[in-house]
C-alpha cells in the first residue's frame, strides 16, 4: 500500500526481529517465520522469487561501506515492507535487486569521497557524483537510474532513522543536464539480429529439431542409465553373485562381437573398464574378478580397443545424402543434449514471439491442438505464464498460437528433459551449475548457450567445408541474447520479407499465426512492437520516395493530397538540417509529423478518416488514426494513390483475371459475372490512371 508520509525523521529504529518480507507474496512452500529479519546482514529474497529462471537474489549488506549499512537496511526495508511516499509504488523483485547495485555504487563513491554519513552531503557532493556518473561507461538511461537510486535517500527520508539526505538532489541544475529519460513509444533499444545471422541460425536450429533430434534422443536414452549408474550416490541394486556378473558380461561381449565393435577405450589405448561395468549395472571392481578379467583379455585380443568410448546408438538420419554423425561418444552426449535444447529454444522463442521468462515456464503438456471436421490439426496453441504487465508476481496463464515447428520442438524437449523436471528448460544433468530440476535455466545461461550454438555451427561448417555457417557482422561474431528474438520477430512481421525460411516454411504463414497469437494474450505489448516496426519501415519508404522524387509521379484520386503531405514532410526534415539515417530520429519524426500514408500491394492509402470506406465497416472507431488495409475498397475509395509498383501489381492482377475469363465456360455463372465486373472496374481504374490506353 502507498501512503503519504511526513517529512520528519523516523522516531524509532526498526526492531531486529522484524520480518522484512512480511508484505510480500511468498512461495507456497515457504513459512514467513523462516524468512529474513531486519537484524540479518544478508536478506534472502528467494522466498518471493516466483520466476523459475531467475537466479537466487540476496541483499548482501556487508558489501556496502560500514557507515552506510544501517541506513541502507532501513531504505530496503521500506521498499520491501514499509511505508512509501505518495506516488511511489513498491518495486518488483527484479527492480529491487538492480536498485541495490545502484545504491551500492553511490554509497561506495560517497565513502571514497570521505563522507561518513548522508547528512554531511551537500550540493557540491551531489554535483560531484553527477560528474562522476558522466565519466562512467553508462548510457543516459543508466545514469538516470543511478541518480534515481541515490535520490531514494531523500524520498524515503521520513522512514529513515539512522541517516538520510537533507536536500533533494533533483533540485540541482546539474542533475537535469543529462538526458536520462527512458526511451518509450516507437523506439526499441534491443538490438535486432541481422538478417544474415538469423537466417542460418534458424535453419540450423530447425535442422537439429527435425533431422538430428531422433538420433540424439535415442542416444540420450542409452546414455541416461549409464550416466546415473556412474553417480557416487546412485542406489545400489540387489547384490549379484559372481556367476550372475559373469553371465551379464558374457551377454554384453556377445553384443560387441555381433556388432563387430572394438571395446571402449579411454583415449590412451587402455580399456574403459568402468564403462563396461556400467553397461552391466555393476561396480567397476567387478571387472577385476578372475573370470571377468579372463573374458575381457580374450575379447580384447579378438575385437581390439577403440580410441574412445562410444554408445551403441547409431546415427540413422542422413540429411543431404551424407551421415551427419558417425557415432556418439559417451562423454559428448551432455554437450549435444545442451545444443539440442538450445535449438529448441531458438525455434520456440523466434517462431512464437514469447519473452524469455515465458519460454522458461513451459511445462509438459503445454501444447494443445484444435481439430477441424476431418480430424486434421487446425490450430496449435502453447500455454505458459506471462509476467510483464501482470498484476501478480505469480504470473498469469497465457496462450499463444504457434506452428508445427514449435509443436515439434516442445515434443523433443518433453523427451529430452529428465522425467522429474518441472520445466522443459530446466538445466540438463551434466550442465554447468546443475543443481536439480525444479528451476529453469537463467537468462545468462541461455545467452551463453545461444552463442555456443553459433560456435558449433561455424566449427561444424569449417570441418565439413560447408558454406552455410553464421557469418560475421562487422568482422565479429554477432553476440546473441534472449531478448533479441522477440525484437527481430517484430521487425520481420512488420517488414514481411519475401522468400521462405528453411525451405518449406513460409514466413508470412508464421507472421499471421504469431501476430494473432501474441496480440491476443495477456498485456504482451507485442502488437505495439509490430506497429512500431511498421511505422519505422513506412518512414524509411516515405523518405526514400521523397529523396527519389517518386511522390511527384503518384496517380489516383488522392495523388495530389499525397504530394502535398510529402512536400510538407520534406520541408520539415530539410529545416532540421541533416539527412535522416538514425532510426531513433526517424521514430521521433514519425511520431511528430507522420503524413499518414500507408503502402499496400495494390494501392497506397493517403488516409483521411472522413473519406475512408474501410473505417465504416469497423465495429468501433477507437483506432481512427489508422486504416484497415484488409478491408480496403481500392476501386471506390477516394483515399487511394497509386505508385508505379501499385500499377504493376494491378496490371498483373488484370492479366490473371483476363486468363480466367478466357475459360469462362468452366466457371459458375455467378463467379464469371463477378470476375467480369472486377475486370471492368480494374480496367477503368488503370485507364483513368493513364496506365492503359482507352481502347484496351
TrEMBL record:
GO terms (BP aspect): DNA integration; DNA recombination
The entry's keywords: DNA recombination
Molecular-function GO terms, alphabetical: DNA binding
UniProt entry tagged with the keyword 4Fe-4S: no
Keyword Membrane: no
Name under which the protein is recorded: Integrase
Species per Swiss-Prot/TrEMBL record: Amycolatopsis echigonensis
